[in-house]
Write a structure and sequence with these properties.
By secondary structure, the protein is of the alpha/beta class. It folds into 2 domains: 359 residues, Alkaline Phosphatase, subunit A; 132 residues, no CATH class. It contains 13 helices and 18 strands. Strands 4-3-5-1-7-10-2-11 form an 8-stranded mixed sheet, sandwiched between helices. α5 runs parallel beside α8. It is globular, with a radius of gyration of 22 Å. The two termini are 43 Å apart.
Length: 501
């Protein structure tokens, strides 16, 4: 078993755009080289989406999209780092992810032994005024004006000043300066690139769209049918996609520095290295952009996972896996038995070749949206049968995604006199349960209309073009979804709103 682990999470990393997974549009030579020394998982899926719910999957091991939309580690659970601290195992977080240090994500870093936060990405309120020598960052496709990135952007003088490169450089330094001093450790590199803004210096900014004139389009719209509705033109769409590609290639280069540091310190013999992501990002697939309210199609939910394991030859695994399984794998490596209810399966027997898989199906989704079930053949997308109700939220740390910059005046719904005390599965700690009814203001991620159920045979239809819902096959897979939800003790109102009661 490895004695040390390095996890590199690249946010919004599109599986289908990596050379290792068949992508040819953008250059990712360092990630591709890593894949050639790792076990590459072909059927890895996001569990809870988006950013912070996915971190909850990874650090707490429990799917939370059936209970809450976005929020901190709760009173009834502990992050993996808490258990490692009890064993005096060093844990280090290096990140430029602003949501980990804002409302709704503010306590994921606190149980790491140490952490380093590289400032200035996305909406990080790093600087209170712009650099007067800089005219400002490109600002397309934003319906809001006060966004912290514009104030920070002028302080990035060269490529090495951007948050992503700084984060990867800090990770490489930590490996060089600290790794040899610790017999056991977990280094968690939570890198926000290639998440938007897709802002890069040259040569990356023009690398995949040399004929574009004017400011580069670094902020993608969050929209379904964006071209059809005129949210952006086809030409603008190509530019947004190219800007993502430039950032992907830039962070790939700096990821190479982390691998070089592992080489210098000769860590491969006793260190597992895991490269993963939280979710993908739509860049025009099905005319969808960003992460808008919609079913979780393959570009968003089917994600890369690569694990380099001491003594294990590189290869490919067809095992169906999801992000809570990464938590279970880390717990297995460090002999951790969580005290709270978790939902993952350790991937150690898969990586070592002891068995071909650990699960027959996986659940995925965004709170208040469709619930997805993926098995060996199908993806089933179940929408509310009628109104998006009943729907409840469970939390003792009442917070969510900070939206005061993006949506001025938005106020997160707070508990009211309908709230009761309830219990989470596997816990005796009372928790606030807030029910929502039709017409209530819902947390942000439950917004948007629904377009019905979908059933796709992913083996025959990887592009998800033929909807098999309403066929005889839907009844069987709906029964499987009901069973999967029962196995995680999903709330009763989830079964009711989906018509699965």
């Amino acid at each position: 078993m490895p004695r040390r682990v390095i996890v590199v999470l690249l946010d919004s990393l599109n599986r289908h755009m990596l050379g290792a997974y068949g992508g040819r549009e953008f250059a990712t030579p360092h990630l591709d080289a890593f894949a050639r020394r790792a076990v590459k998982f072909e059927k890895h899926y996001a569990g809870s989406l988006p950013c912070i719910p996915a971190r909850h999957d990874l650090l707490c091991g429990a799917l939370d999209f059936l209970w809450k939309p976005w929020g901190s580690i709760e009173l009834w659970e502990h992050a993996l780092t808490t258990y490692l601290r009890r064993q005096s195992i060093v844990t280090m977080l290096i990140s430029d992810h602003p949501h980990l240090f804002a409302s709704g994500g503010e306590n994921y870093h606190t149980d790491f032994y140490a952490w380093e936060y590289e400032r200035g990405h996305e909406n990080d309120p790093w600087k209170t005024r712009p650099d007067p020598s800089w005219i400002g960052a490109p600002t397309s496709f934003r319906a809001y004006a006060d966004w912290g990135y514009d104030r920070s952007r002028g302080y990035f003088r060269g490529e090495e000043d951007f948050p992503g490169p700084r984060t990867m450089a800090a990770a490489a330094r930590w490996i060089d300066d600290h790794a040899a001093h610790h017999d056991r450790f977990l280094l968690f590199v939570d890198e926000f690139d290639p998440h938007e803004p897709f802002d890069t210096p040259e040569p990356y900014a023009s690398m995949y769209d040399e004929t574009w004139e004017g400011a580069h389009l670094i902020w993608p719209p969050y929209a379904v049918a964006a071209l059809k509705r005129g949210v952006l033109t086809e030409r603008q769409g190509r530019q947004v996609r190219a800007s993502y590609g430039g950032k992907l290639t830039m962070i790939d280069r700096w990821f190479g520095n982390v691998i070089a540091a592992i080489d210098r310190q000769a860590l491969w013999d006793d260190t597992a290295v895991i490269v993963c992501t939280d979710h993908g990002h739509y860049l025009g697939e099905k005319d969808t952009w960003g992460k808008p309210p919609s079913p979780v199609y393959e570009p968003l939910g089917h994600i890369p996972l690569m694990i380099a394991w001491p003594g294990v030859a590189p290869g490919t695994s067809a095992a169906l896996t999801t992000n809570v399984d990464i938590f279970a794998t880390l717990a297995d490596i460090f002999s951790i038995t969580p005290e709270h209810r978790t939902h993952g399966r350790s991937l150690v027997p898969v990586v070592t070749g002891a068995q071909p898989g650990v699960r027959d199906y996986a659940l995925s989704g965004i709170w208040g949206r469709e619930v997805h079930l993926i098995d060996d053949t199908h993806k089933y997308v179940r929408a509310p049968e009628g109104p998006n109700a009943p729907l409840s939220m469970w939390s003792n740390r009442w917070s969510s995604l900070a939206l005061h910059h993006a949506v001025p005046g938005y106020r997160f719904p707070v508990p009211d006199d309908r709230a009761t005390l309830d219990r989470m599965p596997g816990s005796r700690i009372p928790v606030i349960r807030q029910p929502f009814r039709e017409g209530d203001l819902l947390p942000y991620w439950a917004a948007g209309r629904f377009t019905g159920n979908y059933l796709f045979n992913l083996r025959n239809d990887p592009g998800e073009d033929e909807n098999l819902a309403s066929s005889r096959a839907e009844r069987d897979v709906a029964d499987k979804m009901r069973t999967a939800m029962q196995e995680v003790d999903a709330p009763g109102d989830q079964f009711e709103r989906l018509g699965l009661a």
